[in-house]
Amino acid sequence: MxxxxxxxxxxxxRGATKLYGGAPAIDGVDFSLLPxxxxxxxxENGAGKSTLAKSMAGVVELTSGRMxxxxxxxxxxxxxxxxxxxVAMVFQETSLVPTSTVAQNLYLGRExxxxxxxxxxxxxQQVLQSLNFDVDPTALVSxxxxxxxxxxxxARAVLHDAKVIxxxxxxxxxxxxxxxxFFKLVKNLKSRGVAIVFITHAxxxxxxxxxxxxVLRDARHVVTDEASKFDLERIVKAMVGxxxxxxxxxxxxxxxxxxxxxxxxxxxxCVSGIVRHNSFSVFAGQVTGVFGLVGxxxxxxxxxxxxxxxxxxxxxxxxxxxxxxxxxxxxxQAIGDGIAYVTEDRKVEGFxxxxxxxxxxYVGHLAKLRGRRTWISAREEAEIARxxxxxxxxxxxxxxxxxxxxxxxxxxxxxxARSLAQEPDLIxxxxxxRGVDVGxxxxxxxxxxxxxxxxxAVVVISSYLPEVLALSDRILVxxxxxxxxxxxxxxxxxxxxxxxxxx
Length: 503
Ligand SMILES: Nc1ncnc2c1ncn2[C@@H]1O[C@H](COP(=O)(O)OP(=O)(O)OP(=O)(O)O)[C@@H](O)[C@H]1O
Ligand SMILES: [Mg+2]
Description:
Layout: E1 11-20, E2 23-33, E3 38-42, H1 49-56, E4 64-69, E5 72-73, H2 79-84, E6 87-90, H3 102-106, H4 117-130, H5 146-159, E7 164-168, H6 176-191, E8 195-199, H7 203-209, E9 212-217, E10 220-226, H8 232-240, E11 262-271, E12 275-283, E13 286-292, H9 298-305, E14 314-321, E15 324-325, H10 331-337, E16 339-342, H11 346-350, H12 357-368, H13 378-392, H14 408-420, E17 426-430, H15 438-453, E18 457-461, H16 465-471, E19 474-479, E20 482-488, H17 494-502
The chain binds adenosine-5'-triphosphate and magnesium ion.
């Protein structure tokens, strides 16, 4: 018997139910967390993982059910409350203050310990360094990429000496190296007796680092067992309630599509010191995969191409779209020309949170018609939204649900749907399946293949090598601000790509 089994749970939850407008996000869920264990929480998009986690972290108040921490009945009413009880949560959607610096975010609520800004910066620097995180404490959070934002969140939780740390999809944005580092960090926390709840869609990660695994499905508890008693198939079956025979990321490409017309060509692009003399082309009828470590300049390059980053940051180089030089000031100009950028950071750039998914998707459709039409049609909105929500299987508790009320993975699907409703010729996906469940990954991958088959130029920025290999006809590897190497989808291997990204 596992030594854990005898220990008293640090968190014990019985019959946890949370209703939204009468519909359950979680329904009578039991959950326990043992001291020093890593407990993976798994399930499809919308299964209730974040809701259960947020109830422990004081963000969501349960409709009914009981929770005890260290044997004492509690009901944390705010994240601050939960932190007092020793529970910290690293959120799926970043909770950092974008207009403050990294250091200010780390010490939020503790500023009185420092009489000068310099003191905060120095202390923050020490914490970040001790965790081996390469983040500038004086940088504004709004300037950080998704991965670095997450590092700040992790540092903040570590800093608060929590005995329970809940991670909601911490590895989704990380490169393989950073992920290895995160795993070490988890082991380190564990050895200090910290118990960890680890929400993830990466089955291999759950198997690799957790002691126990709990699976939720449709708001209900399905199973909790030792990780050693699971394999991939058992987890997937518990998640989806049936056997899923296809492999997660599809297989390696056996053939590649031939390049069509040159849709995009970039020469000597320089962006704020991050992108340095970057040159490459993208062709119609192909998927061009773009791989690189965090900081290689992938996102920055394509944000400038699509007008998401202001052209003021562009310090040189030319961008030709369909042989015409372009420099967009705002994304709507790029959209009007037929370029769509599907963001990796849905919270910040993704959409209008207080609108319904249907309205968001329709906005995408209208953006394409910019200037050519002024009327809107409720029936058309409903029809277009229906098509896309069906194709991407967007799930919400009700038709009227606002985007902010959707689960993380379903929000990601709405972002994709809205961009595709723009009917672009060049579509740039930045980490398209981040936070998306097993079934939906397959759907999104099929969709990407279909776009390329239909003659669109598709760019997929991804930090996950199996994804890059499964999708790409060509693979561009970026290193230190420019494309350093190119592979065909057939000749590429994980080792070759990784080597090119690092050396
Ligand atoms: N504030 C809210 N208002 C209304 N419904 C909500 C709210 N928060 C969550 N829900 C609904 O509760 C269900 C569970 O959501 P939750 O975020 O817990 O899922 P999840 O398992 O974390 O999914 P994902 O893997 O996509 O992050 C979803 O159907 C979601 O739409
Ligand atoms: Mg979630």
